[in-house]
Amino acid sequence: MSVVPADVLPGSALAVQEPAAGAAELGPRARLWPSLAAVYRAQLSRARVARIPLLFVATFQSIGIMILMRGVVDDGAEAQAVVAGSSVLVVAFVALNLLAQYFGQLRASGGLDHYATLPVPPAAVVLGAAGAYASFTVPGTVVTAVFGCVLFGLPLAHLWILMAVIPLAGAALAGLGAALGLLAPRPELATLLGQLGMSAALLLGVLPADRMPEVVRFTRDLLPSTYGVEAFARTFGADPDWAFVLGDLAVCGGVGVVSLAVATWAYRRAAVR
Amino acid sequence: MCAVRGLTKTYPAVRGRRGTPATPEVRATDDVRLEIRRGEIFGLLGPNGAGKSTLVRQLTGLMRPDGGSVEILGHDIVRHPERAARILAYLGQESTALDELTVSLAAETTGRLRGLDVRRARAERDAVLDELGLTPLAGRPLKKLSGGQRRLACFAAALVGERPLLVLDEPTTGMDPVARRAVWSAVDRRRAERGTTVLLVTHNVIEAETVLDRVAVLDRGRVIACDTPAGLKEQVAGDVRVDLVWRDAAPLHVPEVAALRDRAVESGRRWTLRLGPEEARAVVATVTGGAAFAALDDFTLATPSLEDVYLALGGAAQQGLVKA
Questions:
Q1: What is the pLDDT of residues B98-114, one digit of tens each?
Q2: Deepest in the core among B2, B109, B142, B241, taking most CB within 10 A?
Q3: Do B215 and B136 have their domain in common?
Q4: Is B194 part of a structural domain of the chain?
């Protein structure tokens, strides 16, 4: 991913800037990848303490939705949309909603000071947290997808596509969540925005698109999770069109790069006031 | 080692909205001037809202001042706030960033984010946890610890990855005496071995009196006094307080005791006298020898505490630097 700001790369102008004569030697700067790995590992370990909200709630919600929709949709394209939508909804719940709340609270409580007084590149903090939250979605998304396939009688053959859908949709939604959480002036607003984003992913992703009015369909096209849903849904077909799947995934990846870059900028802005 | 000149920060006025009254413009720091020397423990003392935290945020590069300069070890922190993180370690009042980590991982991660490689971060983590007696708690998440233990764990994280300046915002809040002692001996060890400097924000005047080399008293964003704790106490009052507790009644047949009666504040068997140091010494000599001693139950001789200074200088009971 190319969301690394230029000044954190070794050898760039800032990294070699020398302090004024007579000044004491500065401590080392934390480099991007090691500190990213450290943040990722620390964030990942939070799942041990906050297991239920981070890993289970989203899965229960998605499975519940699929059971509800069981009697409503037919077995063809609509069922595929419901299963794909419910699976990506897990990603939206955790990566967008929970991450927005996490950063919103961290910012409001002064928790960002901890990172801001360490010589760590902003991208490492944002990418580490986003990566961890995207990882939290893996078990829930897989469980939801398998359960959905069994429930609606869909083929399990192409479920491997989740290995691309989760990280790419995860990057897009986690970037969005982090940016919302860091930009929201108050933590309640961050929570609200995260909830709204997740509700949008729920309504626009799970409900089959061809029954929607034109305006709603346009909104659906603006939401990054839609492309993850579409990519996943296409693979249920007898002969999936892989070019379209790749195209959808590329949109997710592109949005991910942009939103993570925005989130990194937002972190910088939030850390020093 | 750390020079602050003319540091000023004004929070803009906030217009009132429904439910929230308007607040006028506030000068959080007003032309603050400080000089912190290498290897000293320098304290910031003052009532709530005096501007201590704002000042610390400006020194740690977390907030840009409106005007003035901060120079730490030759680096201009106002122009290069990002350098602060490479010179100092900061222990803030909030632990939310670390709350869901285990003590061990919180310390290790902080060390890695201070630029240590995995091996060094782990070695320093083990050393610091051992030094502070936290090893038995290493596997517990901070969230599950008591307030004082959590604070100690955050202090441990601040120590991993050596820094020449430690900025500690009320580090010992909620700690038991054992933990407090661990904190101060860890600080002392770093000071003796590496000349570490400490900037301490505190409310605990008793602790301030015992650990600080020098202290600045802040009020409404201004430094109104800056001296050693003893020097400050002298500024407030040069008098010494003598408490005499008699067995049943004061031995008024002793002429020296009878002469003191007019100047004493009596409360039951207790006499409290405010005297000059010389006079106090004479009084103590009198009552601990001769006839008066037989009637004496207990006595104390005390200089005014930093708490007297704090109360005399700060907050609503503003009395300024007048002699009591």
A1: 999 999 999 999 999 99
A2: B109
A3: yes
A4: yes
